[in-house]
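Preliminary data (for renewal application), zinc ion complex.
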Amino acid sequence: MVVFLLNGGLIMKYMELTAVKRFELKEGPVPSVGSDEVRIRVLRVGVCGSDMHAYEGTHPFVHPPMVLGHEVAGVLDVVGSGVRGLAKGDLVTIEPNLVCGECYNCRTGRYNICEKLRVIGCVGYNGGQAEYLVVPAEKVFKLPVNWTLDKAVLVEPMAVGVHAVRQAHFYPGMGVVIIGAGMIGQATLQAALATGAGTVMVSDPVENRLNLARKVGATALVNPSRDDVYHKLGDVFGQRGPDVVFDCVGNEKTLDTAINLARKGTRVIMVGVPFGKIPVNMAFIQDREIELIGTLMYTEVDYRTTIQYLSDGRMKAEGLVTHHYPLEKVDEAFQTALNLSLGSLKVLLDIAEQ
Ligand SMILES: [Zn+2]
Ligand SMILES: [Zn+2]
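Predicted structure:
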């Protein structure tokens, strides 16, 4: 709901993470729009793993006070005078990384690791847990009109998987292990399959996540609370072993498992967000020529690929969004996202209807 002030300005509601585990619903002016910017009327915002880390005080780089929300679906409400190719009413999502354009990585196409990286809804720029969000027009992607809002909000997390697969120097037929079948594990799985993966083994202790992985085409499933992962690895990959292992969790135990599952020469990709320093078995990394590779977010090419895959059916949105909450119930939404026994995968905040 938007209220007109006497001076003609608009105020909006937004949710601020004011301290660890403390959200406050606030009201403030609707931000004005510069000539190269657009204003989005936000309709859906995803709750991401990194949001939950920030909420719990365990994110290495995202800290309150902050308006969270970098997984955004909405419609354009105001388009700056200098913007071409976008119009009021367009269904859009945002690529939330804001970069300097001048550092070495920006100049060589890897702006996702800009030296001065800011991230809408995470670092240095308030996000989409608000009725309106103003962003640079170049960070906006117009989506097909027939897309659902659930699908639109999934572009960001799915693009994380697409980029992770690109970081793995992926080639068709690759043998893949994915540790963790939460949203990012599912995104990595679908990206690997879309890119022509051969055998894909997915490991997760939560049964409904494994079932969804099976539905989209995982070849083998392991539940480490029940199965012997190493025994299963031998059954699935034989002597050759996997070519790449994605750690989509990012803790000491999962990274250790990833390195132990690797054969000599396997790539291990860290997709999850580890909290600070974790021990690594460097003797294996050295002796086995294991390549340990980090991956962060995505660039425009990953977004375009993701939108293409979601359009042509190589990636599927079905089954990924499990819960919806109104913005006012943000605490409940985060509790649901944190409690794995509730079967949550992607939890959305519904800010408004189309
Ligand atoms: Zn995210
Ligand atoms: Zn830069």
